[in-house]
Design goal:
single chain, 215 residues, alpha+beta, globular, disordered N terminus
């Protein structure tokens, strides 16, 4: 049983459903709920997910005197935001090997120590750029050296997506300037009761410029 996007949109506007509907899509009735054929909206606070591309990465969390070691991201859905240093595994790499390589590539600093491994995930959607990502990320608490090397412009998987590292006070990191990974670290600091639950970001804002006050 199907119905047009416009008819389903009428139901949303009536207040019975709440979510996002794309015109021209076909909807079907399933267990009393009208669903888009590619499930790209949510109903009554419940996110209906489909066609997410899963991305896995390994990242370092370094906090010193209430400041977090961040990189300035220059590409991807977290571009022009603060992000954690880290990234995807190369063929044959172990998790900690990826961690050490990525932190050095993106911050210029060597990892001296790592511990406290944990894993989280976030679903990130952007209507503007039409992408949906399931980001699974392993975090390690790290200690880095004081020496800062020059960042390579080219890394194993292409252009370096870091514009350099900054120590940012925790209280200055927000949903407006930080990636979901950093927002999860802030949840850790606050000892949120549902820390292990997945995160959802609907209509994620892909920024077009860095904040200027620190650059």
């Amino acid at each position: 049983m199907g119905m047009s996007g416009n008819r389903c949109n009428d139901l949303f506007q009536s207040g019975w459903y709440h979510g996002y509907v794309r015109p021209g899509k076909k909807y079907k009735l399933f267990m009393g709920i009208f669903l888009c054929s590619n499930f790209d909206f949510f109903i009554k606070g419940m996110v209906i997910l489909n066609e997410y591309k899963t991305h896995f990465g390994v990242y370092g969390v370094c906090i010193k005197q209430h400041e977090l070691l961040c990189i300035l991201k220059n590409s991807g859905p977290y571009q022009y935001r603060y992000d954690l240093p880290g990234g995807s595994q190369e063929s044959g790499e172990g998790l900690t090997e990826t961690l050490v390589r990525e932190v050095l590539e993106e911050t210029g600093q060597k990892v001296l120590q790592y511990d406290h491994p944990r894993i989280y995930d976030a679903f990130v959607q952007s209507e503007e750029l039409d992408f949906s990502t399931h980001h699974v990320f392993a975090l390690y608490t790290i200690l880095v050296g004081e020496t800062v090397e020059a960042l390579p412009k080219i890394v194993v998987d292409g252009l370096n997506d870091s514009e350099g590292a900054r120590w940012i006070p925790l209280e200055e990191l927000t949903t407006e300037n930080a990636s979901p990974l950093i927002l999860k670290v802030l949840e850790e600091q606050r000892k949120e009761p549902f820390l292990l639950n997945k995160m959802h970001f609907i209509n994620w804002n892909v920024r077009t410029a860095f904040e200027t006050k620190r650059l």
